[in-house]
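Dear H.,

Thanks for agreeing to be a second pair of eyes. The structure we're designing against is below in token form, covering all 271 positions.
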């Protein structure tokens, strides 16, 4: 089966593991800035776990008619598959090999069960599996491996460079798209983030314990921020937003304002 076949011009489909990625999406968002006014073509949103990146990133992309691309899903898919296939997470070479071989597709959701997109690992739907606590536990060590990052970063960059994208992760503004036209760093205190993650797990019917969630989050923060390759940090030219006391709509308002005001070169952001 060929990789990356787009079904029609309103679908979003991208195949991460083949060289010839095809990306087609409709550019008809509801974002107010229009009429030929330039807006940033590439928007990078970084930040620690549960800082709200996925929620607001997805909504912002939808409003702008941009592609929403959650890079964490790729690291999660590799981690889930390693666990499934009995690959020792401590075996860097074996995990890296898996990252190079695994075909990860992120496609428009076929079901409406709360998912933002469907994640396929070698054709199998792993959208919810990659959110499980065991993936939370091992995804940071997996993402710290240089070769895993190299394999996934290349694919992310190819997609990002096409523009009209809101890309979300840990190293988007610093490594994947250092020239992104708007860089956001979403933050919140560890306690607030752990509480959000705990409620999220409960809502999905997962067993959850607030203390354990907090501990797990601290462990991940520690690894993500201190790894040698592409650690989580605020890019020099990023706007940092503390979301401790802000709801989703409020964060979105701030982001839209930043989009409106972002200085863009040449500026062909609008169709
Ligand atoms: O949803 P949450 O913020 O908890 O995590 P995620 O965005 O799904 O990312 C899961 C993990 O993947 C992170 O803890 C990082 O270790 C890793 N990651 C990364 O290293 N680089 C990225 N660009 C995205 C995620």
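And this is the sequence the design step returned. I haven't edited it by hand at all.
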């Amino acid at each position: 089966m060929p990789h990356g076949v787009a079904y029609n011009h309103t679908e979003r489909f991208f195949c991460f593991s083949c060289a010839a990625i095809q990306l087609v999406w409709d550019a008809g968002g509801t974002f107010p800035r229009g009429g030929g006014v330039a807006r940033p073509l590439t928007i990078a949103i970084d930040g620690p776990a549960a800082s709200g990146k996925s929620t607001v990133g997805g909504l912002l992309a939808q409003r702008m008619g941009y592609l929403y691309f959650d890079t964490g899903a790729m690291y999660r898919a590799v981690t889930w598959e390693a666990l499934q296939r009995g690959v020792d997470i401590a075996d860097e070479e074996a995990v890296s090999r898996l990252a190079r071989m695994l075909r990860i597709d992120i496609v428009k959701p076929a079901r409406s069960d709360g998912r933002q997109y469907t994640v396929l690992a070698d054709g199998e739907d792993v959208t919810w599996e990659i959110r499980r606590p065991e993936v939370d536990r091992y995804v940071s060590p997996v993402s710290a491996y240089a070769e895993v990052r190299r394999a996934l970063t290349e694919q992310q960059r190819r997609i990002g460079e096409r523009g009209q994208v809101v890309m979300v992760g840990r190293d988007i503004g610093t490594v994947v798209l250092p020239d992104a036209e708007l860089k956001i760093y979403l933050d919140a205190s560890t306690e607030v983030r752990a509480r959000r993650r705990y409620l999220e797990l409960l809502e999905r019917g997962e067993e959850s314990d607030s203390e354990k969630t907090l501990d797990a989050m601290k462990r991940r923060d520690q690894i993500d921020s201190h790894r040698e390759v592409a650690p989580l940090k605020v890019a020099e030219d990023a706007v940092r937003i503390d979301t401790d006391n802000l709801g989703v709509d409020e964060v979105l308002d701030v982001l839209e304002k930043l989009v409106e005001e972002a200085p863009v070169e040449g500026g062909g952001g609008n169709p």
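Two observations from my side: The two ends are 32 Å apart (CA to CA). The domain at 13-25+40-254 is CATH 3.40.50.300 (Rossmann fold).

Warmly,
E.
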